[in-house]
């Protein structure tokens, strides 16, 4: 692994990843600050998560008019979404439109996977090496690697000898997969699995869905956008943006300021029926205490469980699907198009692997502890990601005095504001652990991070400051705030949540995202900058 990159050209900034974060960061540093910046991207095109996630049914759960850049009214007005939720192809088209419009591709190196980053203290430069053996040097290193980009493929014995095909949803073949007439097994019923089931079921000969933890889901109610709605979006950039900036999770809707306990059972039913018909993530926004109060949450949870039992015709399957062991929305709440309905098809079977766990993969399929075996042609792993820390660990980052990020985060990630780690000067982590990130509509929190980092670098340059670092004490303080914010909600009460790292064996159990709300976080970061960056060391 060539780490001696002293001879490589020196850039002002190196950005890793060409998704929403990396593209906007490149534009901001290059076109706003006039810096020499470059993006290194492992994929063959722009899009980040959307470059890789092409599985059947892959579609964003944020509404299209909020799942895009909002920093430029011109860009906003020029692009027109076609559906309420954008599908993966449409998002890639959008990302390419932005990249072309802002002339970004000339400074993005595609098919270039970063395998090591080392801070060279003497030169005050980051030395970065790629899989292809290239080396780059830059003053600032900005990770834009996403939170959900390192696949979690469970180590089930026997996979290597499986004679069929297998795929992880997060690195789906570009040419697609033909399920026609095939016996398919899908492991996982998170947001991804719930999107994929109905689409695979419509094509496959037979689909076995291996469910370990039953999950809630609310109908997405996807539909084509009307010309009136499109015109409204085009003409209301400022107002929509303002709503996204002022709400807890960066969505274009506000959370009703009322408690579940304030309404009668009849009123509650009427409100929830209406919300169910409207569909989408807004379902949880009807009350302020859904994620704060167990009793309030249980009422919503029971409503969804009743819906599942009313949709699924086979009582045994319905019971297994509705046997949900955690509060509603305490794991990321999926939304779906005909997920529960898919279990009414003759070619779909639910396999309860909580009751009868997967023991091994055999050459012919999946064998359960009871000895039952499902013969399969294709296995789909919808088993999620080594979230938040996984993508950063994959960069093999080494800071001052040879300290590695892996060692620093052995007991769980520690950051200041999710933006910096002590001992890794001039390195910024967009949507890093400790920031709202995955609890927020991603483009909104990405824009805030990119703009904060850009302003910070502008400040350093204007004041002749060569290095910015943070301190252990600042990280401790922020870590306590992240913990406090999480503990004020029901979120950390789910033992098997990826928010806690619980889906990856051996990963430390630390609640990683900041649950204090995007608007509050935005104000806090702005205040830190306005006060001259307390908690950071500028020298
Ligand atoms: O992954 P997950 P995902 N044996 O970790 C199961 C975002 N997203 O890809 O719950 C059997 O949520 C696991 O079971 P359990 C969104 O933030 C966004 O679905 O651990 N099962 C679970 O059912 C989301 O939260 C969109 O018991 C095993 C599933 O696999 C995040 O991505 C769309 C297993 C994993 O669920 C991740 O979602 C889709 C095993 N050994 C996703 N190992 C958009 O809106 C794991 N499982 C853009």
Automatic annotation (TrEMBL):
Cofactor: FAD
One term of GO molecular function: flavin adenine dinucleotide binding
Gene3D superfamilies: FAD/NAD(P)-binding domain
Keyword Glycosyltransferase: no
Top-rank taxon: Bacteria
Entry keywords, A to Z: FAD, Flavoprotein, Monooxygenase, NADP, Oxidoreductase
Protein name as it appears in the record: NAD(P)/FAD-dependent oxidoreductase
Annotated source species: Dankookia rubra
């Amino acid at each position: 692994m060539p780490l001696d990159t002293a001879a490589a050209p020196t850039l002002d900034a190196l950005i890793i990843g060409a998704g929403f974060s990396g593209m906007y960061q490149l534009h901001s540093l290059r076109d706003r600050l006039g810096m020499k910046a470059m993006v290194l991207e492992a994929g063959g095109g722009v899009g980040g998560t959307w470059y890789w996630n092409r599985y059947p049914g892959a579609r964003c759960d944020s509404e299209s008019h909020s799942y895009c850049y909002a920093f430029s009214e011109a860009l906003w007005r020029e692009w027109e979404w076609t559906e309420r939720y954008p599908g993966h192809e449409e998002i890639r088209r959008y990302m390419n439109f932005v990249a072309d419009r802002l002339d970004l591709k000339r400074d993005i190196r595609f098919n270039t996977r970063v395998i090591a980053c080392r801070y060279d203290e003497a030169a005050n430069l980051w030395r970065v090496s790629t899989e292809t053996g290239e080396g780059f040097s830059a003053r600032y290193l900005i990770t834009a690697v996403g939170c959900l980009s390192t696949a979690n493929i469970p180590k089930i014995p026997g996979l290597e000898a499986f004679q069929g095909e297998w795929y992880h949803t997060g690195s789906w073949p570009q040419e697609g997969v033909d399920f026609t007439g095939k016996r398919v097994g899908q492991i996982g019923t998170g947001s991804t699995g719930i999107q994929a089931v109905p689409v695979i079921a419509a094509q496959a000969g037979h689909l076995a869905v291996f469910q370990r933890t039953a999950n809630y889901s609310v109908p997405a109610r996807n539909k084509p956008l009307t010309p009136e709605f499109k015109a409204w979006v085009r003409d209301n950039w400022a107002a929509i943006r303002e709503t996204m900036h002022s709400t807890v999770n960066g969505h274009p809707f506000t959370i009703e300021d009322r408690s579940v306990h304030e309404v009668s059972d009849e009123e509650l039913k009427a409100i929830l029926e209406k919300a169910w018909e409207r569909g989408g993530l807004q379902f949880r926004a009807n009350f302020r205490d859904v994620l704060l109060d167990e009793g309030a949450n249980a009422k919503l949870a029971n409503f969804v469980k009743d819906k599942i039992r009313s949709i699924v015709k086979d009582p045994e399957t319905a019971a297994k699907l509705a046997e949900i062991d955690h509060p509603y929305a305490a794991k990321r709440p999926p939304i779906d198009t005909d997920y529960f309905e898919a279990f009414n098809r003759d070619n779909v079977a639910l396999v309860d692997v909580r009751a009868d766990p997967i023991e091994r993969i055999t050459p012919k399929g999946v064998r359960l502890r009871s000895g039952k075996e499902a013969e399969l042609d294709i296995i789909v792993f919808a088993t999620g990601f080594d979230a938040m820390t996984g993508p950063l660990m994959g960069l093999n980052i080494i800071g001052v005095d040879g300290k590695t990020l892996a060692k620093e985060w052995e007991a769980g990630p520690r950051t200041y504001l999710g933006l910096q780690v002590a001992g890794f000067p001039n390195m910024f982590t967009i949507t890093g652990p400790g920031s709202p990130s995955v609890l927020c509509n991603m483009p909104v929190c990405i824009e805030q991070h990119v703009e904060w980092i850009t302003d910070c670098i502008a400040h350093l340059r204007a004041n002749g400051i060569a290095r910015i670092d943070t301190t252990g004490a600042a990280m401790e303080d922020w870590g306590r705030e992240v913990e406090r914010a999480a503990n004020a909600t029901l979120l950390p009460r789910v033992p098997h949540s990826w928010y806690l790292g619980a889906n990856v064996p051996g990963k430390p159990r630390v609640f990683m995202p900041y649950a204090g709300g995007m608007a509050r976080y935005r104000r806090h970061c702005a205040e830190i900058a306005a006060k001259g960056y307390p908690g950071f060391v500028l020298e």
